[in-house]
Design goal:
Helix content: over 70%
Number of domains: 1
Number of strands: 0
Radius of gyration: 17 Å
Order of helices and strands: HHHHHHHH
Shape: globular
Length: 205
């Protein structure tokens, strides 16, 4: 039987691949330095360990593991470049769609979870897109698509998890905004805040 430690080892081994993927996504082929790879190995191992520890007995664990690994890539890219490449966000969403769809197809009583996840992802995307159009500059399109993507995974868990995701995201966003103002900066990466909110929602008991 797989354990959370074994999943953490998978995260460590995937670090070099994820680092190369991130480098290619931002068109910096020379970014594959030892420190860059070490960052991905360590971060992915830690995140995947906690995700696996929470969902070890769930058939949806592969999907949540995919969220963990792609989330690390997006988080690091946004922190370093203030970008959320659509190719990476799309891959995160597509992988989750396939993996959760397989679970819904082969495991009894999981179709409702999949349908709810699709509805929530579409609803969150629509609300965020409307907000972006009505209040330009508040949300970038990368943030909008990321909100929809993480809501697919969180929506699988349930409406309460979505509520937790949104509350934690707003809270973390407020803290980040205050911190940036305190150090004299007005721009900060919102992607890690969105991903952090989703991760907290997925790890709740």
């Amino acid at each position: 039987m797989w354990t959370a430690i074994e999943y953490a080892c998978i995260g460590t081994l995937s670090g070099p691949v994820l680092a190369r993927w991130a480098s290619a996504a931002v068109d910096e082929p020379n970014r594959g330095t030892r420190s860059w790879v070490t960052l991905f190995c360590a971060t992915t191992a830690v995140v995947l360990f906690f995700v696996a520890a929470r969902w070890l007995n769930s058939p949806a664990l592969p999907a949540f593991g995919w969220f963990a690994m792609t989330g690390v890539v997006l988080c690091v890219i946004d922190l370093d470049h203030h970008r959320l490449p659509h190719a990476v966000v799309g891959t995160a969403f597509g992988g989750g769609l396939v993996l959760l769809g397989v679970v819904a197809a082969v495991v009894d009583q999981q179709a409702e979870n999949f349908l709810r996840a699709l509805v929530i992802a579409a609803a969150v995307f629509a609300v965020c897109l409307t907000t972006s159009l009505l209040a330009p500059g508040q949300l970038g399109f990368g943030d909008v698509t990321l909100f929809g993507t993480v809501s697919l995974f969180v929506g699988w868990v349930g409406w309460q998890a979505v509520y937790v995701e949104l509350v934690v995201t707003v809270f973390l966003g407020g803290l980040a905004a205050v911190a940036m103002i305190a150090i004299g900066r007005t721009r900060f990466a919102f992607g890690p805040v969105i991903l952090g909110g989703a991760l907290v929602a997925l790890l709740q008991p």
